[in-house]
Amino acid sequence: MKLPSLPYTPVHWDALPATEHQGETGAALWRTLNNVDVRMRVVELSPGYLADHWCDRGHIVYVLEGEVTSELKDGRSFIMKQGMGYTVSDFGDAAHRSWTRDGARLFIVD
């Protein structure tokens, strides 16, 4: 990933407005900062959240709190706990989606 030109930008993530995105079950609250083609966000997944789609977009994901399972369309799955995360490129592997039993808070760059 090459970051486009960006001035030094302090960000208070919790002060950014939240947008709600419904999952197949549960919801995700996104606090998003966009810079041209790079989206940076803190995402809070509600307990019982299951994404409503399979995603082919590349991400850098870091689990701030909780536990989330990243499920790949080819059947693999990975449990990510606080302090863990993953990277994947656009169309770089099988499509993926996330779910959590108890809720989670993530930092995502894509």
Q: What are its keywords?
A:
110 residues, 8 strands
Q: Outline the biggest β-sheet.
A: 8 strands, antiparallel
Alpha-beta classification? mainly beta
Calculate the terminal CA-CA distance, rounded to whole Å.
9 Å
Query: Could you spell the SSE succession in H and E letters?
Result: EEEEEEEE
- With helices defined by DSSP (H or I, 4 residues minimum), what is the helix count? 0
Mean model confidence by pLDDT: 94
In one word, what is the shape? globular
Question: What oligomeric arrangement do these chains adopt?
Answer: single chain
User: Low-confidence runs (pLDDT<50, min 5 residues)?
Assistant: none
How large, in whole angstroms, is the Cα Rg?
Answer: 14 Å
Strand content: over 45%
Number of strands: 8
Helix content: under 10%
Protein name: Cupin
Organism: Methylobacterium frigidaeris
Written description of the protein model:
InterPro entries: DHCW_cupin, RmlC-like_jellyroll, RmlC_Cupin_sf. It comes from Methylobacterium frigidaeris. This is Cupin. The structure is a single chain. This protein has 110 residues and is mainly beta. The chain is built from no helices and 8 strands. It has strands at 18-22, 27-35, 38-45, 59-72, 77-81, 85-88, 96-99, 104-109. Strands 1, 2, 3, 4, 5, 6, 7 and 8 form an 8-stranded antiparallel β-sheet that branches. A hairpin with a 4-residue loop joins strand 4 (59-72) and strand 5 (77-81). The protein is globular and about 40 Å long. The mean pLDDT is 94.
SSE diagram, text form:
Elements: E1 18-22, E2 27-35, E3 38-45, E4 59-72, E5 77-81, E6 85-88, E7 96-99, E8 104-109
Organism: Methylobacterium frigidaeris
Protein name: Cupin
